[in-house]
Task: structure prediction
Amino acid sequence: MAASIGAVVYRALHSRRHRKLLSVGRGLFSGARCLVAEGETHFGFQKVSETEKGEKVYHVFESVAKKYDIMNDSMTLGIHRLWKDILLHQMNPYPGTQLLDVAGGTGDIAFRFINYVRSQWEHQIKQKLKSHQNLSWEEISKSYQEEELKLPGGSQVVVCDINKEMLKVGKQKAQHLGYSEGLSWVVGNAEELPFNDNKFDVYTIAFGIRNVTHIDQALQEAYRVLKPGGRFLCLEFSQVNNPLISRLYDLYSFQVIPVLGEIIAGDWKSYQYLVESIRCFPAQDEFKGMVEDAGFLKVEYRNLSSGIVAIHSGFKL
Amino acid sequence: MRPRVFLPWAPSQLNPGFAAPLTIKDLPAPHLWRGDQLHHTDLTVTAEEHVDEEKYYQLYPGHIPTSPLQKALLSAGSAFMALYNPYRHDMVAVLGETTGSSALRSLRDKMRHDPEGYQILQERPRIRLSTLDVTGLRGLSDGTFGREYVRFLDSNRVSPDTRMPVKFVDDEELAYVIQRYREVHDLMHTLLGMPTNMLGEVVVKWFEAVQTGLPMCILGAVFGPVRLNAWKLQILTTELIPWAVQSGRNASCVLNFYYENRWEQTVESLREEIGILHPPAICV
Result:
């Protein structure tokens, strides 16, 4: 029914040639394109059964795993690094934080977390030295150690991903970059996490939640594994609010990104799926509602790059 | 009738309302429908039907419809990537598909005007390990086309199944023509007596450039030699290229031969029939 409303709106727009309304119509119609029947879900713009979606997503990430990082850099012209840095700044972890990074595959968030915590620790030591406070012998010995036996304060990050190939790439990266302590890699499904209740201080999911078949279940699991006072952070592609940027973004997404996928990774279809899945993901406010439904409080979102990406944050209180 | 505005990007991708209720099953039989008509303004556009975006223009299994802008980007990108990383054979294939439309059309016309070529277009034979009787071919006597072909496959350790499927050609018959060209490429290696190293591939590309006029072959022929050392370049320019070009000019269209029926023919007689001149006595 919504699809036919979309059609009527489209025909009306086209006959009156209202350029300004076209973006609204397009938004309506894109939404209509993503409507599905019961028991069905969307895989990009395709309609598939819910069991199929999980399998298809698994195959997509299995095939892109090796070129995942280089594709991210090419598609976003390196801007994804800034987005992830902003996420970490918003998280502002202190030494001692326990982080769970879901759909963390190749480890970008985990490595940034480790760097942040280490630099926080160094900052703390510097502050103490500046104010002439005496450092304890533990702190002195730690600051001299070249090999960190543990992360400062006992911080820990668990990277959880459903896809073994992505975790494999992540582990290789970690070895290559020299991250070993305080880091663990776990295979798990965001809808059914293999962790006990009330375990983590922060739960992050960066560019992963739109690939989950049942987003509400993933949010409930997030609520479950967080400690009281814990924070939920989600970095995800969202809807652009500026009409001009929206047109350019659509053009770039549909024309350039699959071509980049074909040339760099030899895989057009996976990147076609990627841009379609972004369009079918709920908008900022709707997703905020879903986060609130899972029980989180003080839910806020922050747009980055005019809404191309949004960070949603909530607390378990 | 909705006015047709030419956009370098496919309308369905920016204006989701321009949707058609078609899947590949609904399309009329290929011989009734000219695949080059991509914009059907006489179809009723209904939004009630769910659109499977991928299947809208899909003309054959594996077809990915692309807009002119995407084709341009693909051509540029694949050309660069093929030079940067010569092991990316898929990039060479993509370059051939995105730049070859007029050359493919003239090849198809040549095939249509020749009885054997026309038969190939009708029957659409494919050269694959599953359809080839490799042991039978190996049993043929030395010097026969079939025996030499299998010898070529064995000594270069290649297989006919590694040919890329066609993705970006927007006409189902032309997609078959380029697929046939790819599958015949190995047979060309056999007839020209060239191995699959860089030098051999460049020679075959020169021959194919003259024969087919495909821009990808021309680019490969011109830029392929940049990776060769001086000695190989010398042999190439003094002996191999002149021979390849002359053979290419002298030979009739290589796609007009039903190779699957000619396994027992000797290589020499097949060369004579096609018009390929005797290869120079050089170890490549």
